[in-house]
Amino acid sequence: MTEDLKEFDKLVREKKISEVDKMLEESKKLTEKIPDLKERHEKVVIARGNVVEASIKIEIAFDELITKTGGEDLVMNPEKKEFHLITGVKRENELGGLGFKSKVDIIRKIMKKVDDEFIYTGYLQSKEWEKKNKDFIDHFKKCNKCGNTEQLNSHHIRYENFGNENIKDVEVLCWCCGLGRKQEPIELINQPEPSLLKDLEKFVALRDIFAHVPVSWFAKELEFDENPRYNHFFKLDQKWRSVPLALNEFMNLQKEILDLILAYIKSIVLKRELLKIFFKY
Predict the structure, then answer these.
(1) How far apart are alpha carbons 210 and 73 in whole angstroms?
(2) What are residue 156's DSSP bridge partners?
(3) Which H/E stretch holds residue 70?
(4) For a Cys-Cys bond, which of 13, 77, 136, 219 suits 154, CB 3.0-4.6 Å?
(5) What is the pLDDT along the chain (281 residues), one digit of tens a residue?
(6) Total-model pTM
């Protein structure tokens, strides 16, 4: 061990590598030249702290959504002999291995699913679908399962041509067969992403900036370092170089996301109540 230390000391002197004490001394001299460093440093520390606190609140909300929503409806748990109106995507004991970005990916899928279901339901209530439904019934004339010719209705079997369906995209069933039909997950691939998904992308990007990018202390205003190796953090918006601007947008996004989550929870509560009524009958 002693010989190793001697070799290391020799290497330091030969390569003219600064010793730790000298590095600290040089750093101190450098920081003394920065005007208002203490005040600026405190602002940055507070800003980073606010980002961490806001991220924690969002993550707690995500955990609730992931464990209590986003799964299937009307599911029987044979092990516990329990019936669940709505299930979560993950169990609570599965959250420990998930990082923040993994949770965001799950939330993106949940919100896309909700948005697709909302658009789909609205489409089925439109005059456009009313006409198409009649045309499909006139074409098939009977139930695809039992051959019944009464109380017929069209059902999607795939969604690639959603809005421009042809006879290969649907099946016609009677009321009874339609009631027992297991519907495939609604995935409208041609629909634009809901605004929340774009907000989530910005939220994660800003969170990463505050977590990983140092501040340029010699800049006139509080700005993040312009070193090229940090460029990828600002690919969504170069304005985020400004610390105050980035913080303001981050906090606004947090509020928007929490508001949208609240609206989503209200829709889940309504859905649960409707399923309760359906299950009673």
Answers:
(1) 39
(2) 170
(3) strand 70-77
(4) 136
(5) 556 666 656 665 665 555 666 665 655 555 556 667 788 889 999 999 999 999 999 999 889 888 888 777 655 555 555 555 667 888 888 888 888 889 988 888 888 888 888 889 899 999 999 999 999 999 999 999 999 999 999 999 999 999 999 999 999 999 888 877 777 778 888 777 777 778 889 999 999 999 999 998 878 889 999 999 999 999 999 999 999 999 999 999 999 888 888 888 887 777 777 766 655 54
(6) 0.69
